[in-house]
Specification:
The protein is built from 24 helices and 17 strands. With 660 residues, the protein is α/β, with parallel strands linked by helices. It folds into three domains: 120-156 and 343-474, Glucose-6-phosphate isomerase like protein, domain 1 (Rossmann fold, 3-Layer(aba) Sandwich); 160-334, 3-Layer(aba) Sandwich (Rossmann fold); 484-652, Rossmann fold, CATH 3.40.50. The strands form four sheets. The chain has a six-stranded mixed sheet, sandwiched between helices. A five-stranded parallel sheet has the order 4-3-5-6-7, sandwiched between helices. The chain has a four-stranded parallel sheet with strand order 9-8-10-11, with helices on both faces. The N and C termini lie far apart (80 Å).
């Protein structure tokens, strides 16, 4: 019973004078119920050669004599102590006042940047506290997102990502050994075969940390487009390449098709050594796990099954490729660990960055600012592709959804509609001027300083929190993807028909000129169009304020194609003033595809396909990569039209590429 003991704290106990013992002020102040704050080097020294015996009572008689001797010399310990206390308090007060001034300045700036959302946030923060949302997240309470029983079961098996930074730190030794072994055996390259959450985080890590790491060179293959598969094969040196086959479910069609292709191709070169060139990352007990074990893969990593794909950046799916690239995993994960402390249930909401940004993003969507527009300095641009999946697949369902807008050309601030919420990932400040101009126009802008590339791990964790919180405010389950399966089913149906008939059935074109065909929803003025450019221009006019226009290209994702499509995208943006997105199929089906089908009906979709002159067979199957990619495109368009979306497919002639 009674109050807790007051514990004295000894501070500044490192040794400054080199003539003294390096633990002089630690070893001589060992007392019961006291605290000693020391720098790391002093702590290391004490652990190495210190003695934790109680010393505070040693030589008390001599201490009394020393005090008397000082008094006789005219030195007053009381006066010196008071002087030191006064100076210390004054320094602390000055420092504290400066801190308060900085906080006030940041608060005013933050309120200004939030624009019209500033008034709503205090109420939401109070609600957040009263409902103990952060504590409930840590307790795996599904009612934050859904009252539906099946949905609640999903949530309860999808919050394992909250503990991944600590889990990852326990893996560093074994993953570092994997890199050491691969290097010693002459490996130089890693080709990762995977889709969505299995590939986007490794790709982001490789691009953001590229000049800071010196391990194996990573390349991602997340496409069934034949030209892109061929390009990856040209890059591969079978003798020096490790293949990572990554799929949470272990049954992802694209991933297993790519695996079959490279597994067969590598046999002629590698022979019996082939299995040592393959690594699997998957959930425990999956088809891929069993296949990897029975085939004798170099390693089969089974990730935490209570983590969904888009929240798996800090799991084996991100860490195994990161280790092979030479990332300092301990440094990387410690950044994320710091963010876990910020999201602790004991940290006030007002100081909790993930909660606050989640509230801003969630309120933004509810207030009509549903176009989360990502601005990023050069090094941080690759983060946008990872964010796209997290935002779109988590929020885009039940007729709601936040639209991620990534790598869009910049407009003059006055030309943006007010449906935007801007996020600036800032390293060097190259966009400071445009951000300031946007703020002055009343746009909501959130700036995040990321000065160390290794802070990418903290950004992964932060944004997972942000989007989970935002989805709770919007009222959707952040951890399911109810509309993804429909596209898969339609694709399987079309391939089954192809296997029966040898023909991939397509609907009748609604427009055709010079080898280019248009399929999908008919619209006014289509018959007057003389070129594919006319078709796009007229179709875009179906959009209205608050809509976005999505270009979804089932084409090789390379520099040339991307530049041409970005030019088209910029033209559409400037002419319409609407937000625009660009995705490459089938990659985007595992990213923004859920939003396209399950989100609000505010998208205008332009799908682009083209025949590949040199198709590639999929070993063991009676259809090719080209057939699979086309079936996915057909299923995608069909699923959009079934939901009454404004959507067309432009099938280009063999030599045609859209020119503005």
């Amino acid at each position: 019973a009674g109050a807790m003991k007051q514990r004295p704290l000894w501070a500044s106990t490192s040794t400054k004078n080199p003539n003294y013992s390096d633990i002089k002020y630690v070893e001589s102040l060992v007392a019961e119920n006291s605290v000693n704050t020391v720098p790391p080097e002093t702590l290391d020294a004490f652990i190495d050669h210190g003695d934790p015996e109680i010393t505070i009572y040693d030589d008390l008689d001599q201490a009394e004599k020393d005090f008397k001797a000082l008094a006789e010399l005219g030195i007053s310990i009381d006066e010196i102590t008071k002087e030191l206390e006064d100076e210390g308090v004054q320094k602390f007060a000055e420092s504290f006042n400066k801190l308060l001034a900085v906080i006030e300045d940041q608060k005013n700036k933050f309120r200004k940047n939030l624009g019209s959302l500033a008034e709503k946030i205090p109420t939401e923060v109070e609600a957040f506290k009263s409902y103990d949302v952060i504590g409930r997240m840590h307790r795996t309470d599904p009612t934050i997102w859904t009252e539906e029983p099946d949905g609640q079961m999903t949530v309860q098996t999808r919050l394992g990502w909250l503990g991944l930074p600590d889990e990852g730190l326990a893996l560093t030794d074994s993953l570092n050994k994997l890199l050491k072994d691969c290097r010693s055996e002459g490996y130089e390259k890693v080709l990762l075969l995977g889709m969505g959450g299995s590939s986007l985080a490794p790709e982001t890590i490789s691009l953001v940390l590229g000049d800071k790491i010196s391990g194996l060179t990573l390349k991602i293959l997340d496409s069934t487009i034949p030209a892109q598969v061929r390009e990856a094969e040209v890059w591969v040196d079978y003798e020096k390449t490790v293949f990572i086959v990554a799929s949470k479910s272990g049954t992802t069609t694209e991933t297993l098709s790519l695996y079959q292709y490279f597994w067969e191709k590598s046999e002629a070169v590698l022979g019996d050594r082939r299995p040592l060139h393959f690594i699997a990352i998957t959930d425990p007990g999956s088809k891929l796990a069993k296949m990897g074990q029975s085939s004798g893969f170099r390693a089969v990593f089974t990730a935490n099954p209570n983590v969904g794909g888009r929240y798996s950046a800090l799991s084996h799916f991100g860490l195994v490729p990161a280790a092979l690239m030479g990332v300092d995993l301990e440094r990387f994960l410690c950044q994320a660990h710091e963010m876990t402390k910020n999201f602790s249930a004991t940290n006030p909401v007002e100081l909790n960055l993930g909660a606050l940004l989640g509230i801003v993003v969630g309120l933004g969507d509810s207030s009509g600012k549903d176009k989360l527009t990502i601005l990023a300095d050069e090094r941080l641009k690759p983060v946008g592709a990872w964010l796209e999946q997290l935002v779109a697949e988590s929020s885009g369902k039940q007729g709601r959804g936040i639209v991620p807008v990534n790598e869009e050309s910049l407009l003059a601030p006055e030309n943006y509609q007010m449906d935007r919420l801007f996020v600036y990932l800032r390293e060097t400040g190259e966009h400071d001027d445009i951000v300031g101009a946007l703020e002055n126009r009343g746009h909501t802008v959130v700036s995040l300083d990321v000065t160390d590339p290794y802070e990418l791990a903290a950004q992964f964790y932060l944004w997972e929190i942000v989007i989970a919180v935002a989805c709770g405010i919007i009222g959707v389950n952040a951890f399911d993807q109810p509309d993804v399966q429909d596209n898969k089913n339609r694709t399987k149906e079309k391939i089954s028909r192809y296997q029966e008939t040898g023909v991939l059935e397509e609907p009748e074109a609604i427009w055709e000129r010079g080898g280019t065909k248009v399929f999908g929803v008919d619209f006014d003025e289509l018959s007057t169009c003389e070129s594919v450019g006319d078709v796009i221009e007229k179709f875009v006019k179906l959009s209205k304020d608050g809509d976005y226009i999505a270009l979804n290209a089932y084409l090789p994702r390379n520099k040339k194609t991307k530049e041409k499509l970005q030019t088209l995208r910029k033209h559409i943006l400037q002419e319409s003033g609407r937000a625009t997105t660009l995705g490459f199929g089938p990659r985007f089906l595992h990213s923004t595809g859920q939003l396209h089908k399950g989100g609000a009906n505010n998208g205008v979709f332009i799908q682009i396909t083209q025949d590949d002159p040199s198709d590639l067979p999929i070993p063991g199957l009676d259809y090719s990569f080209g057939v699979l990619a086309r079936a996915q495109a057909l299923g995608d368009l069909e699923a959009l039209l079934a939901r009454d979306r404004r959507a067309i497919r432009i099938h280009l002639g063999p030599e045609d590429m859209i020119e503005v």
